[in-house]
Amino acid sequence: MSDLNAFIAGLPKAELHVHHVGSASPRIVAELAARHPDSSVPHDPEALREFFTFTDFAHFIEVYLSVVDLLRDAEDVRLLTYEIARDLARQQVRYAELTVTPFSSTSRGIPAEAFLEAIEDARTAAEKELGVVLRWTFDIPGEAGLPAAEETTRIATGLGCDGLISFGLGGPEIGVPRPQFKPYFDRAIAAGLRSVPHAGETTGPGTIWDALTSLRAERIGHGTSATQDPRLLEHLAEQQIPLEVCPTSNIATRAVADLDEHPVREMVEAGVLVTVNSDDPPMFSTDLNTEYAIAARLLSLDAAGIAELARNAVRASFMDEAGKRGLSGEIDAYLTDWGRQS
Ligand SMILES: [Zn+2]
């Protein structure tokens, strides 16, 4: 392990853009598959690892849906959620805003109340037993249209869920205009939730403007195409609207052709608050530490620069001020210790 990789591995971190089902690692899927022997996913560990190796986007969707199919009752949801926290804790993630898509489960017959109870139970256990603070973003799966938006809004605003802090929009952007979701975001914001839609991942900067004006986005998921519009970059920098950058995911989905062409440096040079995140890590054969290493290379960062990237995620998070001070302090102390040792 290089020095910087070792630094990243031990660095206390916050993760702001990572999906619930998209975080199911082969280890977790093996546990779920053991509960449901009739499922179509491979059962032996070697075949399962191979199944998880990213080949193209269609295969990613196949893997993703096979995990959705394994979430058949509340206990599956609880197991997945708790085990994700274990994988985050191993990477020294102290705080994560996990994007959860309740509609995928409620539309398959898990009652919303049981779903919420399962994730909340996992959240409180993970905080106590693993030291990871989890918070939820409930997102509308855009491809499922307005009925999914209605159901997601109902669950997010009507049922009560202590860990829920924000409201998102995922799925494809092409053919799924953002402004149609305005009424749902209005309701979620009125209920006290923060707005964090995906935008500008696979479409141009116009989608990011839509997310800002129609959906009142406080952070943008990806925002990769922001660099195509200097006025937008300036606006994001001025308003300190953070971008949740997920480098490996952008290559996997072909939002960006090649890592060396990733616009993250341009974003940073324009003064935009950039955070580094992992999106659907096992399905894109990555993890948060790998994404930090990639960002460090693309931005030519040393240990202090990497620590600043970790602080960006704390700043851009929806933690309360005491939480932010605590985690930033932990990052500072880790950097100081590292300097003393090397
Ligand atoms: Zn995402």
UniProtKB/TrEMBL annotation:
Record's Pfam families?
A_deaminase (PF00962)
Top-level taxonomic group: Bacteria
Sample GO molecular function, one term:
metal ion binding
Q: PANTHER family attached here?
A: ADENINE DEAMINASE
Entries under NCBIfam families matching the protein: aden_deam (TIGR01430), PRK09358.3-1 (NF006854)
Q: What's this protein's family per the entry?
A: Belongs to the metallo-dependent hydrolases superfamily. Adenosine and AMP deaminases family.
Q: Which organism is it from?
A: Streptomyces abyssalis
The answer to whether keyword Zinc-finger applies is no
| Cofactor(s) of this protein | Zn(2+)
**Keyword list, A-Z:** Hydrolase, Metal-binding, Zinc
**Which segments constitute the Adenosine deaminase domain?**
12-333
Gene3D superfamilies linked to this entry: Metal-dependent hydrolases (3.20.20.140)
Q: Return the protein name.
A: Adenosine deaminase
